[in-house]
Amino acid sequence: MGQQQKVDFNETKHPYLWGSITVFAAIGAIGGAPLLLFVISYAELHNINIATAIIVAILVYVIFAFIVCMIIKGISAIINSRNYYPQKTIEYNITNKRKISADTMVDNWIIQNGIEPVELHIKDIEQWKKTKIDTFKGNARKIEKFNARCALNKGKAFRFVSYRMQTRYQQVNYKKYPYQVRVNNEDVCVSEAFMLERIDFLKKHDFNITYNQYHAVDQRKVLTKSMREQVKRRDNWTCQLCGKIMRDGVGLHIDHIVPISRGGKSMLANLRVLCSKCNGSKGGRLDGDEERDDFYEKDELY
Q: Which entry of 29, 32, 122, 279 is 20 to 30 Å from 93 by CA?
């Protein structure tokens, strides 16, 4: 059997390559044909070897095209430097996942990686601004222009690129060999203010639920299989009311402590393991409601 071949491919690895090829092709289409006709006619008039003249023309054309490409790249670099803003690029792998929104991608990344990378990058931005302003030596006009550029480009502080790794096959000697291809899915830029708002929301809910999950209409769809397994392991497959152990999963229910009918959310802090009997008797009530019901029943007996 043949060995599996795996190839990692990044479509955005060389962003200037296709631009350079396009410029070369445009210059060739505009100036290549007239230059070649001029060289052939000049060689015939002066009895010069046509092959030599064509080779010289091609070399001149390549040098000219290279110079034009460098000029275009230099102009582009100057424009980009004027619009420069410190940007942190974050790549998020969504392989084997359904298509998720940009908001959910940002929230998931913060939950998985913490807030330290965000805070460090925001500090770097503030330091960069301070250093740039210091170089202006109190020139109010330059500082005003710089602040205007910062206000224009502040939405580029964080760049999220989601991608999938797709398996494809290459046939060699009548055998198919799999290899991995990276396919970019979505490219989104967000500001520091947006990231800080997300962090404040996630802190408020102990990093247990994303913004879209919290505001979902159907909270039962938010309760995924992985969340169920996480709750089972956390509670050790044991009913949190009567203590019954259900390692075989028979009669094991995942209960919302605050019921969905009363505004409860499908997040880990609001989930627990109950047996079927305890969950059935609890229904859509809170734990305190059951105690109050027992108190009223005893009071009626007396």
A: 122
